[in-house]
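INTERNAL AUDIT FORM
Audit reference: QA-55
Scope: verify that the stored structure record matches its stored sequence.
Auditor: D.O.
Record contents follow.
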Amino acid sequence: MTERVEALQLAGWKQRSLGGFADRFGPLWTRKENDGWAYGILATQEHLNPAGFVHGGGLCALFDHVVSAVAWEAVGRRACVTVQLSTQFLAAAREGQFLEARGRVTRTTNTLVFVDGTIESEKTELLRGSSVQKIVVQAEL
């Protein structure tokens, strides 16, 4: 696993500690790319379900974090919360795989941000989905 971590670092990935729930499904890795940010996790034993595959709930947690972060960035770093999340599981992942997640805004209104995204590993699409994010008004906090 150490070699894998070193390879990720050489490829420009940085491990982040955000605290809270994000540290439970992570650790989270990030990398700045031409059109935004990529996010990832290195699947370990802790990410697996009893069948030995990365747990679908873990994939959903990563996806939810990514689409929220993409929305947050798109609206000037204002807080956004998920009001709808739709996912399709396309393939399974195993321990040791690096899961890369990306999202893109498809539409923004005064109160909502629509984001599509994927999670891939080794050029295989694992999850595809979409979300609707509500821009949180300060008074709502």
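Auditor finding: record pair retrieved intact. The chain has a mean pLDDT of 93.
Action required: none
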